[in-house]
Amino acid sequence: MTVAVLGAGAFGTALAISLAQNCPVTLWARDLGDMARSRENAKRLPGFGFPDTLSVTADMSIASRADILLLSVPMQKLRALLQDNALLLADKRLVACCKGIELSTGLGPVTVIQECVPSATAAVLTGPSFAADIARGLPTALTLACKNDAAGEKLQQLLTTPNLRLYRTTDTIGAELGGALKNVIAIACGTAMGAGLGESARAALMTRGYAEMQRLAAHLGAKPGTLSGLSGFGDLTLTCTSTQSRNYQLGLSLGKETAFDPDTTVEGAATAIAVQDVAQRAGLDMPITAAVAGLLEKRLDVQTAMNALLTRPLKEE
Ligand SMILES: NC(=O)C1=CN([C@@H]2O[C@H](COP(=O)(O)OP(=O)(O)OC[C@H]3O[C@@H](n4cnc5c(N)ncnc54)[C@H](OP(=O)(O)O)[C@@H]3O)[C@@H](O)[C@H]2O)C=CC1
Ligand SMILES: O=C(CO)COP(=O)(O)O
């Protein structure tokens, strides 16, 4: 068995390092930089040397020879990567490792894979995990979702490593929505903390945000149990409470009104806008998502957004 990871960001690099404990792994990057010589990804995940079983390439025809390919580029870049390499990726097992909803279509990564490479077996790997924790060998548990349970079980076995424990589901919609939507709520929580609104406000946003996640997921046909698992509740908890999270960090800077590096990968930003559109079309009430979209689009300031949430009509929980 061989694995390739397409996209040498922090997460792709960490997964490649962990999976190289199991089998030969090829890490594909559009720009290798100094990685082949230094045996480290100094740009995205500094401080973690590559094991001997990990090779790097910028040649997709080499990477695509692997049995299983993990797709670890940001969500908004996934479709182009698949379209550009559709012939090489035909019939492969493709596992999306990105968390988000496509801005132009409102679709998640599994559907995007199915649209671009219909002959592939599509899956998504998601859940609470920081790249540095995985690379450090710290214990991590993730969800592997694949509609075909037999294919999913095989992937679960092959991609579990000594420190990366995978659970399995056939509910790809629930798994990808959990990973996408928690980022939006993490921006809201970071904003509240940055603006000094307090930990009680954060707990309220996490809980009511989780209600929004469940509402949209149910509307789109997800199983309720998936949202309460690692890919939903698990990742929501991690991302809304850790300053390691870039989504939370963006929120902190919105709340403090400080500058934020626009080149940072913050999946929740595009996803908030995409989800707001999906919710509006479906007639769903998602006020926290709408508030985050309003903040990001600079239609709202923090105080106005918070007042709007607090003065909504009172309701049953
Ligand atoms: N970091 C983490 O802890 C975790 C991240 N994730 C998810 O993983 C996904 C990737 O995030 P992460 O690795 O952190 O992001 P990073 O910001 O670390 O890296 C993004 C990577 O994507 C590459 N990339 C961007 N556009 C393209 C493109 N068009 N073609 C090829 N490569 C491209 C970049 O290449 P280049 O260097 O050349 O710009 C870079 O290597 C996100 O969806 C994120 O939510 C999930 C769990 C944990
Ligand atoms: O998805 C993550 C943790 O599970 C990483 O979160 P950020 O993308 O916010 O850094």
Structure explained in plain terms:
It contains 16 helices and ten strands. With 317 residues, it is an alpha/beta fold. The strands form two sheets. Strands 5-2-1-6-7-8-9-10 form an eight-stranded mixed beta sheet, with helices on both faces. Helix 9 (172-194) packs across helix 14 (267-282) and helix 14 crosses helix 15 (287-296). 53% of the residues are buried. The protein binds NADPH dihydro-nicotinamide-adenine-dinucleotide phosphate and 1,3-dihydroxyacetonephosphate. NADPH dihydro-nicotinamide-adenine-dinucleotide phosphate is lined by residues 7-12, 30-31, 43-44, 72-75, 77, 80-81, 97-100, 129-131, 265, 267.
Sum this structure up briefly.
Helices cover 51% and strands 15% of the residues. It is α/β, with parallel strands linked by helices and 317 residues long.
